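User: Here's a structure from my thesis project, written as structure tokens. My advisor, Dr. K., wants to see whether a designed sequence matches the one we expressed. Can you design one independently, without my sequence as a hint?
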């Protein structure tokens, strides 16, 4: 009976893995097929490889610029929201603030709202309110980094709060008795102990900013256009270049796969850190 149950679990997870990974495999198959084969009888078997789509995407200077914009925006936003979220969690867990639970709930409601709700007010803010001479935040990397804080900062606070709260306050008190300042406690005690949670938050917010499409497609034109928004340029009135779009999609997957494979153990440690307080 135990052996049968084990085989059932194995078959179940094989089926789940197949359903999850098959779209990625199918995306790769589309990216290495010429346009003529895509509109013929589709086949899931990869009998030949057509690398010209990858050569065209790699040689396109516009797409390379979009990729660089995505790297700058996602990295800048991830570092900013992780730093601000860490400091906010320290204040929420260490100081006796009145109504801090209400503050925490109000913050996380921004993450619950659909991004489309913020499109109009963000557009008006970037074009009318935060205007410095001829410079506006619209279609700028700084503007997109700040825009993504609207959604990623609440997530960073929600993720980091259990991590910071799981660090005993007695460590802070002992350091203060020894004459340490608040910044010394944060940088030399709290920060090293919270590194697993910080790593998880940094990675997940980076992926969220890297994959975002709706806000980037609405609030950028060319200067800050990201790689994900470049897909729409290949849907025209004369046809859709499915092979190029699939190739760009594969390129957007590669950085996230590399990062997750490198820090997989830290993700598990960070998500469980602070789950049980002694």
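Assistant: Designed independently from the structure alone:
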């Amino acid at each position: 009976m135990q052996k049968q149950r084990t085989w059932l679990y194995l078959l179940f997870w094989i089926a789940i893995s197949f359903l999850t990974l098959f779209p990625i495999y199918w995306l790769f198959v589309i990216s290495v097929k010429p346009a003529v084969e895509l509109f013929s009888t589709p086949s899931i078997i990869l009998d030949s490889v057509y690398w010209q789509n990858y050569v065209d995407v790699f040689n396109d200077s516009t797409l390379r610029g979009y990729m660089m914009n995505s790297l700058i925006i996602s990295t800048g936003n991830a570092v900013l929201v992780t730093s601000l979220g860490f400091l906010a969690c320290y204040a929420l867990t260490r100081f006796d603030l009145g109504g801090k639970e209400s503050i925490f709930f109000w913050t996380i409601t921004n993450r619950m709202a659909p991004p489309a709700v913020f499109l109009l007010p963000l557009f008006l803010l970037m074009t009318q309110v935060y205007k410095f001479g001829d410079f506006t935040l619209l279609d700028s990397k700084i503007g997109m980094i700040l825009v993504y804080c609207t959604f990623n900062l609440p997530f960073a606070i929600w993720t980091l709060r259990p991590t910071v709260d799981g660090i005993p306050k007695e460590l802070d008190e002992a350091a203060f008795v020894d004459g340490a300042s608040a910044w010394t406690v944060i940088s030399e005690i709290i920060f090293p102990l919270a590194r697993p949670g910080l790593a998880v938050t940094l990675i997940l917010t980076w992926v969220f900013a890297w994959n975002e499409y709706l806000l980037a497609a609405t609030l950028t034109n060319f200067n800050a256009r990201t790689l994900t928004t470049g897909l729409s340029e290949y849907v025209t009135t004369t046809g859709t270049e499915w092979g190029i779009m699939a190739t760009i999609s594969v390129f957007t997957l590669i950085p996230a796969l590399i990062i997750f494979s490198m820090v997989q153990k830290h993700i598990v440690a960070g998500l469980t850190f602070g789950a049980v307080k002694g």
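When you compare it with your expressed construct, this may help: Residues 1-49 form one domain.
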